[in-house]
Amino acid sequence: MRRRRVLAGIGAVGVASLAGCMELLEEGVESEAQPAAVDAAVVDDHGYDRVGTEDYTIDETVEVGGESRDVTVTSWGTTYSKDAADLTLHDESEADQFEDEVADLLGQEGAGFAAISTPSESIAGQELNPVGRMDDAELIDEFNDEVVDGEVHGIDHADEHEVAVLGESTTANEFDAIAETDEGEEFPIRIVLTEVDHEDDIVLGVGVYPDGTDELETILELTEHVDHPVEPDD
User: Fold this and answer.
1) Is the model's pTM score more than 0.85?
2) Which of 13, 79, 120, 129 is the most exposed, having the fewest neighbouring CB atoms within 10 Å of its CB?
3) Topology of 32-53+76-227 in CATH?
């Protein structure tokens, strides 16, 4: 996943204050997050499987001291999946049709969760990482591919829930949305997004599950058991 944007007006005064994993190079700036993951016991207890952990890069060009510099931001995502057959429906009579539709629309074939970490770094008070400047809808779009095999649209805020993540009380925002396949088929979903700052990184919990299932409390439980930092293979 690669995005390129141009930021202007970052003065040279902030160059000396770079911190964390960021390096100011002759060619540009590099910053890498530390991976995040959900406690393995909690994952197992709720019937999820770990899909894997991978890194990906966002590229930018910034102006530093009147000169353009490339910025390379490396983020990490650890993803989990739960089979459609293991989800509890509000109406069990629709189970067979539901499983077929979910398998067609969601890459995780049921519900999915991603623990995402991305570096938070700034020069002269200007956040370099575009993720740090995104609102919830933009974050969902940015990390679409982490949890849904298809495009998400029609995002509408539905509710919010207080959670504790990495020792911080914060809000998990719940959204109604539509997942659309390449063939144009649509399926209503719920998305739960949580964001905290931790050890120089922005840590996100993103849960996605089909509308009409009782998966919300499980997603909140996974969110509250995100660990950071972890080794990539933990």
Assistant:
1) no
2) 13
3) Protein Transport Mog1p; Chain A (3.40.1000)
